[in-house]
């Protein structure tokens, strides 16, 4: 049964200046053969592949710049420090933060969200207060708030979504009240691809005096993000989902909020002075960057941002939108396929189930044809429960994917139908 007609994705003009074949040459791993077939990598929501520019940046750092940053007077330390802070400015410009000091480097989105929960949350959420999330959140944007509420005696409230996977905005706004101290929301759902009306949600939360924390892991690789325009209080994302290295991420926070928060971890570089009687903390952002950071990861993240900027995030978004429209039509037309998540506003994620075939079986058969998709609950078990399914198959797109790869996916799904006929 076709579900394509249920997804009214807005059309866009053809992205004629986007040369996907040239871009594919920048990603060495795309030349890989899997079980004798060309790799079709459609698992980008889990992690994206890395262009040569990022790989070269990591090699260049270790070959010519490797030293610990800050306070070193020797040449390599000074060079490494300059590059580290240059990367902070690159990230600032990328998300249009007001100050470089509002950019904190973390291990990824998960650590960034936990940082906010354990610092701002513990300081500002108390017994009887409420934390509001949505029904489509990743576990990383559920569990830290559950832990905080359990510790503080606060209540976790959940804004529902409809059968298309869209937030019920009126019900979200109704849940906001004088007890709402914090709202945590994903900009884009990793399981459904839904793009939430974030600016409107933030404005509604601020009108009730709540602070908003945004999980932007699935948005930053695909959408132009302007934290000042959104008026986000905190915004978290990961390098490895935006063509950068693993183990590096970013937390943006408004300067005044960061300055008022206690540190997350104790150790080197987050201090101004230490005696046995008292420790005074470093200024923001260093107060939240205890220990030796991932300097190579930061260098790789800067290279990834430079690479994306060189192509243009608007062009990337337009190309991925074309892929999503095409995949929605082609995959949705296959007999037995049911699309899960048919919001009007979506990023490049297509989740589906197939008749009575378990998603893990589908993924295994697709892998034998060189097609990499993600199967399971996608760290979003409440989403699966909402749609009364155990799991989905998720194909997620990046700038280097093609319509030919979607055709290969469709052929692979038909092969699955033959096996389980």
Set down the secondary structure blueprint:
Blueprint: H1 20-24, E1 33-34, E2 37-38, E3 40-41, H2 52-64, H3 75-95, E4 103-106, H4 109-124, E5 130-134, H5 143-152, E6 155-159, H6 169-175, E7 180-186, H7 198-207, E8 211-215, H8 227-230, E9 234-238, E10 249-253, H9 255-260, E11 271-274, E12 279-281, H10 295-311, H11 313-332, E13 337-340, E14 349-354, H12 359-367, E15 371-372, E16 374-376, H13 381-386, E17 392-396, H14 403-419
Parallel strand pairs: 3-15, 5-6, 5-7, 7-8, 8-9
Antiparallel strand pairs: 1-2, 4-10, 9-10, 11-12, 13-14, 14-17, 16-17
Helix pairs in contact: 2-10, 3-10, 4-5, 11-14, 12-14
Describe this structure in words.
This protein has 421 residues and is an alpha/beta fold. It has 2 domains: 4-31 and 312-419, Alpha-Beta Complex (Aspartate Aminotransferase, domain 1), CATH 3.90.1150; 55-310, Aspartate Aminotransferase, domain 2 (3-Layer(aba) Sandwich). Helices cover 38% and strands 16% of the residues. It has 14 helices and 17 strands. The chain has a 7-stranded mixed beta sheet, with helices on both faces. The protein has a 4-stranded antiparallel beta sheet with strand order 13-14-17-16, with helices on one face. Helix 2 (52-64) packs antiparallel against helix 10 (295-311), helix 3 crosses helix 10 (295-311) and helix 12 crosses helix 14. It is globular. Residues 1-13 have low confidence and may be disordered.
Any idea what the CATH architecture of the largest domain is?
A: 3-Layer(aba) Sandwich
According to CATH, what is the class of the largest domain?
A: Alpha Beta
The percent of residues in helical segments reads 25-40%
Query: What is the radius of gyration?
Result: 22 Å
Estimate the strand proportion: 15-25%
Summarize the biggest pleated sheet.
7 strands, mixed
**Count of discrete domains:** 2
Quickly count the helices.
Answer: 14
Distance from N terminus to C terminus (CA atoms, Å) equals 15 Å
Give the low-pLDDT segments.
1-13
Mean pLDDT: 94
Determine the CATH topology of the largest domain.
Answer: Aspartate Aminotransferase, domain 2
The tally of strands reads: 17
- Could you give me the name of the CATH homologous superfamily of the largest domain? Type I PLP-dependent aspartate aminotransferase-like (Major domain)
Shape: globular
Q: SS-based structural class?
A: alpha/beta
Strands ordered across the widest β-sheet? 4-10-9-8-7-5-6
Q: Oligomerization state of this entry?
A: single chain
């Amino acid at each position: 049964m076709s579900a394509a007609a249920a997804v009214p994705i807005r059309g866009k003009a053809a992205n004629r200046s986007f040369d996907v074949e040239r871009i594919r040459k920048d990603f060495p791993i795309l030349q890989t053969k899997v079980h004798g077939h060309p790799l079709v990598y459609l698992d980008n929501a889990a992690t994206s592949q890395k262009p040569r520019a990022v790989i070269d940046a990591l090699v260049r750092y270790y070959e010519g710049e490797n030293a610990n940053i800050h306070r070193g007077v020797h040449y390599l330390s000074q060079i490494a420090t300059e590059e580290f802070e240059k990367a902070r400015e690159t990230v600032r410009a990328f998300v249009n933060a007001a100050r470089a000091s509002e950019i904190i480097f973390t291990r990824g989105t998960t650590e960034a969200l936990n940082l906010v929960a354990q610092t701002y949350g513990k300081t500002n959420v108390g017994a009887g207060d409420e934390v509001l999330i949505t029904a489509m959140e990743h576990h990383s944007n559920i569990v830290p708030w559950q832990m905080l509420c359990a510790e503080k005696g606060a209540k976790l409230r959940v804004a529902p979504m409809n059968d298309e996977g869209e937030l019920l905005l009126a019900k979200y706004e109704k849940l906001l009240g004088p007890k709402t101290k914090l709202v945590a929301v994903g900009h884009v759902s990793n399981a459904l691809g839904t793009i939430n009306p974030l600016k409107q949600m933030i404005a509604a939360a601020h009108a009730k005096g709540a602070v908003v924390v945004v999980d932007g892991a699935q948005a930053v690789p695909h959408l132009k993000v302007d934290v000042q325009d959104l008026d986000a209080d905190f915004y978290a994302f990961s390098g490895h989902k935006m063509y950068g290295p693993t183990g590096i991420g970013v937390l943006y926070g408004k300067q005044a909020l960061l300055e008022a928060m206690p540190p997350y971890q104790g150790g080197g570089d987050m201090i101004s002075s230490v005696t046995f009687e008292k420790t005074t903390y470093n200024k923001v952002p260093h107060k939240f960057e205890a220990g030796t950071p991932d300097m190579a990861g930061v260098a790789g993240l800067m290279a990834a941002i430079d690479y994306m900027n060189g192509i243009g995030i608007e062009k990337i978004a337009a190309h991925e939108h074309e892929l999503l429209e095409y995949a929605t039509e082609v995959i949705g037309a296959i007999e037995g396929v049911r699309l899960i998540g048919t919001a009007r506003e979506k990023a490049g994620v297509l989740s589906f189930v197939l008749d009575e075939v378990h998603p893990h079986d589908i993924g295994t058969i697709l892998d034998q044809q060189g097609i990499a998709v993600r199967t399971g609950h996608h760290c979003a078990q409440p989403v699966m429960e909402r749609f009364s399914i155990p799991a989905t198959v998720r194909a997620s797109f990046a700038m280097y994917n093609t319509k030919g790869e979607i055709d290969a996916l469709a052929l692979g799904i038909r092969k699955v139908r033959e096996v389980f006929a």
